[in-house]
């Protein structure tokens, strides 16, 4: 259901403590309202429970704030990493397009093909005839030295992944 990380385990512990304390307070309210006990809980005992509960709730709020800040920081770092990856992919695409000598219109068609659009969809978006898109696609595939759309996408995936090999469940860096 979720990855067991120190953050997720810490969050589960905090939630468990909060639930326990909420149940404790609810129990006190039920006892007070229904007067189930003929002899009330001693003042000192009850005050100690409530002081402990309040301290634990304040501590859990502080822990929640710290965990949320940590998660927001990690999300921000992941977003920045994604932006870097997008920029690197765009640079790779431009480098390959330059190397293949693609024209501006061929670049446009190639980008749409990489995104998975059909010739009809590309023609509609770029306001060209489907025949024009088909011939430009063929030119892109010929210049790239690939058989078709799948070959074009595979070429870029191979460039991105590089020489990463997975053998027996372990990445090459761990062997």
TrEMBL record:
Transmembrane segments: 7-31, 51-72
Classification via Gene3D superfamilies: Winged helix-like DNA-binding domain superfamily/Winged helix DNA-binding domain
CDD domains: LuxR_C_like
Domain annotation HTH luxR-type: ranges: 99-156
One annotated GO biological process: regulation of DNA-templated transcription
Domain of life: Bacteria
Membrane keyword on record: yes
Keyword Cell wall biogenesis/degradation: no
One matching Pfam family: GerE
UniProt entry keywords in alphabetical sequence: Membrane, Transmembrane, Transmembrane helix
Gene Ontology MF, one: DNA binding
Name this protein carries in UniProt: Helix-turn-helix transcriptional regulator
């Amino acid at each position: 259901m979720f990855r067991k990380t120190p953050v997720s385990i810490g969050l589960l512990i905090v939630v468990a403590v909060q639930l326990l304390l909420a149940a404790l307070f609810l129990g006190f309210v039920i006892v007070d309202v229904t007067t189930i006990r003929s002899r009330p809980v001693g003042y000192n005992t009850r005050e100690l429970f409530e002081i402990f509960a309040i301290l634990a709730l304040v501590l859990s709020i502080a822990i929640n704030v710290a965990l949320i800040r940590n998660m927001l920081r990690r999300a921000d770092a992941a977003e920045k990493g994604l932006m870097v990856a997008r920029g690197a992919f765009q640079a790779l695409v431009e480098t390959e397009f330059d190397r293949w000598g693609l024209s501006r219109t061929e670049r446009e068609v190639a980008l749409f093909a990489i995104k998975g659009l059909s010739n009809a969809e590309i023609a509609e978006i770029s306001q060209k005839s489907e025949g024009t898109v088909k011939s430009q696609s063929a030119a892109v595939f010929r210049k790239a030295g690939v058989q078709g759309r799948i070959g074009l996408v595979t070429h870029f995936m191979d460039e991105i992944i590089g020489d990463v090999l997975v053998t027996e469940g372990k990445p090459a860096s761990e062997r």
